[in-house]
Amino acid sequence: MNKKKLIESNPLFKPIQNRLLIPLFTLLLLLIVAFSIVIITLQQNKLNEFTTRIKQRASVDMFRLLDKQAKSLAAIQMVILEDADLRGAMKNLDRDHLLAVYEPLWNQLRTKHNITHFYFHGADRVNLLRVHNPKKKGDLINRFTALEAERTGKI
Questions:
Q1: Full-model pTM
Q2: What digits encode the pLDDT tens for the residues 78-111?
Q3: Which residue, 19, 68, 110, 139, has most beta carbons within 10 Å?
């Protein structure tokens, strides 16, 4: 056999880079995959933390806003509840009288304070009158705010 062919066929004589290429490429690929997994995990953790903080802030802001609105409505309610005519109309379930008296007030509140709904309910949460939509009546009000007011006794 030819000496040159013998050297070429022997793996010990192949250049070093050919023998190291596959292991180096494999190692590089593993490093890229590991680095990507670490980066994605860190990003996901940061995103979860950010989302949790946003949800907490939104919850606090929502309850502050709800409390502020409740205080404003409580002031309006105090004025309305002083009206003896209202008490009589509520006792008699006189929707027509309530609508005649309070529709102008609702229009004013809507225009000046962006109040979109004005209800009269009984203590059982059954709707007597929607001043903003007088045709709809008699349904049970199960909104969070009504249930929470019933549960806590607060506005």
A1: 0.51
A2: 877 788 788 888 888 888 998 998 899 888 888 8
A3: 110
